Amino acid sequence: MEHYTITVNGKKHEVDAPADMPLLWVLRDLLSMKGTKFGCGQALCGACTVHLDDVAVRSCSLPISEVGDGKITTIEGLSENGNHPLQEAWVEHVVPQCGYCQGGQIMNAAALLKRVPNPSEAEIESAMQGNLCRCGTYNRIKEAILTASKSS
Fold it and tell me: Which domains does the chain have, with CATH numbers?
């Protein structure tokens, strides 16, 4: 076990974990933050997407030992009141069905909008292609991202 001090959603946390423990399990099991979901465990589906220094990363494959001094943002930390433009657009466009992938989808979209404030449909499709939605709400996701980009 190693000792780590990590910053999650603006707060410092002290954790003891094996160096190879994925950030996902640190968040869920050690810090009880359940918004970040386990999907595939191989960084293929995007359900576990969080931000590390404003860059979307797959927390299921990122060992805690590689976080360093980076600032982690989870879906719980995206907006204190759940009123981030993406979260509001998600509701407006009735994106969630089962909801399982939504945290990862929103986090990936937020990283996109930080890089490209007014993305084209093609840029959205390219950026979001690694986040899978079993319910197939891809068109609504794209529309929600376009709406959020206009209100950011």
Answer: 2-78 (3.10.20.30), 85-151 (1.10.150.120)
